[in-house]
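G.,

No rush on this.
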Amino acid sequence: MLGGKASRLAWFLLVAVVFDLGITAVHAESSKASRRTRERGSSKRRFDDLESAESSYGSFFGYPNSVFNEYSLFIPNSNPPALCRAYPNGQRTNCGDAFNNQCRTNRYRTFDGSCNNLNNPMWGAANTRYGRLLLPKYGDGIQAPTRSVTGSELPLSRLVSFTLFPSVTVKDNRLTLAAMQWGQFITHDMAMIDGSTQSKKHVTQCCTDDGCLLRRDLSDPKCYPIVIPYNDPVYRKSTIECLEFVRSVTDLDRGCNSRYKSAAEQLTVVTHYLDLSLVYGSNQQVANNLRLGIAGRMRVDVRSNREWPPTPANKSALCDVESSSDVCYDTGDVRANQNPQLTVLHILLLREHNRIAGKLARLNPHWSDETIYQETRRIVIAEHQHISYYEWLPLFLGSKQTRESKILYDTNDYVNDYNPRVDPSVLNEHSTAAFRYFHSLIAGFLKLIGEQRGSVSPPLRLSDHFNRPAVIEQDGNMDHLTRGLSYQPEMASDQYFDEEITIYLFRNGRRLGSDLRATDIQRNRDHGLASYNDYREYCHLPRANNWNDFKDYISEENIQKLASLYAHPDDVDLTVGGSLERDVPGTLVGPTFLCILLEQFYRTRVGDRFWYENSNQDTAFTKEQLNEIRKASISRLFCDNGDNIELMQPKGFELVSDRNPLYKCQNLPSVDLSFWKDYAQETRSNEDHQTHYVYYKKK
């Protein structure tokens, strides 16, 4: 470490000149331990919509050519990274390239998503690659993080974050915090990057405990730390010079076979489908461990006469705990304890499963535990899909746009638009950039709301409760937080972010934490996404040849800031440019992100053989059952599964108003489960649970 700020800056400038690096040049999450292993050409060229973009060969870990800032020495990369075979536990994985089992026609989804598509059994399965709209633009063409078109480094992620995405509090005037939180629930259901997390202390450490950069020869090859610029308005007042960041695991790291391309592709450890994998798990082992094995119910702990998710065997792997008595929850997803409102949704969906299972068990006493569990799972997944698409999606992507894109239909009948040629895989552009735009909706303080919709105590500071869910069970907070979801406004959809997530993210008792916006930008580069300009062109906007060409959807002030940060319009990160666009009327996003999101949610629906509105197979609901599923709502979910909630507005994603007043819960529409009464004289089942039932309309 160099002594004296002036001398350090002088040394930094000298190094920059000698190596022709540029002042802003720099190239800089990890696996959680858990109770058990969860298995889970041209930039304009578009991958075929109907094919997987599959690739890989031997493991090749990239590392930044240099790691430096004003506080650290420049370390040239004199030795290129070596090829290695680093498969987990010595096992080679195929990343979805091959399916060695036989798909059988089954009434129920598999837990890992395989065999949804009978022609391509691994499409949408856990532990497979993300899809892409455009070919990646890695710095080395294979897997190194994105670089400028000039060949130099892109501006520091943290510098871009505090320059373009300042901490300003602007509340939305229409939508509730539940709308934001349901969005996170959707993204956790559809994607989780393999090998990285920032919600818990890193197993792979890229910075020292006091925030200094680790020497390169002591750090993991997957390290890509977020380097703090010398003029940082927050971290310059501390000793912190880097924030943890670990590169995502790719097919190259897993040693998968290369078939179509040599460039790396990231993997997701959960299923790509909207199938509540975060509740039920993304493999059979996790699913089995969460089941009670009696009457179709899932395991719970009972405290204060209320059901809570079970306690994990290793709390410290999932939660920030100080003693063995601290509350921590085990669910189908390791991220469930991340923040209180996310955890509340997990609890509500778990209770919804057991509520419905209890009713089906009484309705059909001849059904086995397996049948009750699977039929309940079908219903709860269908409710989730309906709420997500027909209640949530129009608020974010527009009622007009979602219908024109054939994502939503105005019908009381079946839709039947399943297409086995559509790959439902989650797009890298969706998961890494477009859907992360809604991080701006996160509120830094969570209100605790009573039945009459007044605050019952001071709000909870978000950064005090990351991975600390105990507060939910205290002083009636389960209901207070649930009402808060339906009453507190979310933050506005804009370029402003709450400082609880740009300064104090996952601080876990420390004075400062990490920066979610800088993390989003860093992840964009880690995944080698093509530039914002490339996606403008893909989405039928004119390509910008100079900075002024961005004026169609980006303000002049933001264009000036972009020009001060980036060397060329083709350098602007998709995460950055898309977040600065003015919203398309009727939506919460600009045209580029809207284009990507509509494409994703079309694929997610049309590529799912088990989608709840399909009728052309044994997996279908009867028309009467389907009409009942369509009564499901976020408000009814709150009413049925809170501890003692009595009042709720019909549209829980929208603020209480004269047009959306509070009603007694019993007056809100609800799913009539009597349509699931099985009148068949006998049932036949086998070990694969391929029972065929005949349901009859309620007499």
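When you get to it, here's the other one too:
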Amino acid sequence: MKKLAVILGALLASALLAYTAAGPFITLYQIRSALETQDTEKLAQYVDFPVLRENLKAQINNLILSKVPDGLADNPFGALGLAFAGTLVDSLVEGYVTPGGLSTLLAGRLPDVLPQQPDTSLTETQPETAPVAAPQFTYDSPSQFTMRLNISADNAIRLVLKRTGFTWQLTNIILPFTP
């Protein structure tokens, strides 16, 4: 009887470990199926939209600040322009971090409102939407998982999932132009 309890305990622990390891893949599948069926309730279970929006706002604001010439922030008009840019970024992210916007990113394309580098490798015989290379998956830590989608030879979108308990949620999308 004691041997059976040990075996059942080991099986239960193995199943729990396997479920935890497979969790990010299950979450990514659920996100994709929710996007395909346009099920926003289901999508909200697997995407932490408030955290995702804040992370994207921070990335884009950092990009803008990295492109600002020295001394522009000291100029009153420059400061006004930066404030306006921050407001514009906030409204763009709030309006674009939606199921449709996620669908575009998961298809390996950048949204139309984001800067894209022209792909000079396309020829007339190639289709404009070349297939995306196979995604790469990595566990960054026991509670963080990253999927990398290559959109070109030197650009990739990274989707970051965080674990809370036994559930995983998409919390960040690292865009390729992030400094």
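The first helix runs from residue 2 to 37. The longest strand covers residues 155-164.

Enjoy the weekend,
O.
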